[in-house]
Amino acid sequence: MEYNTQLKKLALPEYGRNIQNMVDFCLTITDRNERKRCANTIINIMGNLFPHLRDVNDFKHILWDHLAIMSDFKLDIDYPYEIVKKEDLYSKPGKIEYSRPDMQYRHYGKTLEKMVKLAITIEDPKEKEQFVLLVATHMKKSYIQWNKDVEDQKIFVDLYDLSERKIDIRNSNIKLPEMKDLGQRINNTGKKNQQKKK
User: How far apart are CA 81 and CA 172, in angstroms?
Assistant: First the structure.
């Protein structure tokens, strides 16, 4: 009795031993046309094993690549697609360059910098004042994620720098909300929503 552990290692175990045996048999066929017919039959069977993947782009192309891999690239037929090369199969993928956006204050994030630029363009004084207050509050919230305490004045100075000295509330009487108050408000809102659901 033969155990699977004693048999040849499967190149693609997801297809199983029977498909691998079919591929091995296909390699022994001497007539080129007959070998191609056999390969087409194997591809159809492989496709039937994973019917949910038929909507995937290049599904057939992937199957032909898998057939080439299972035959250890020894199957001599006219492939309908350009198959993956053996050397490409085991080569390391190229290094992905991550985008490193230029940010003056990384802890505030890129979105907040865009919001500051938007605030500069607002012409209506009342609308601008409300938006600036919203931005400053958000800056304080973001800052506290990295540091426990922050003075409002620090936020106002950072806003002045981020806005390229176009938004100046450093000497204003504006008082930003305490973040613990914000946290309590969020928690209370969450509790109220849970009570409503009950």
Answer: 69
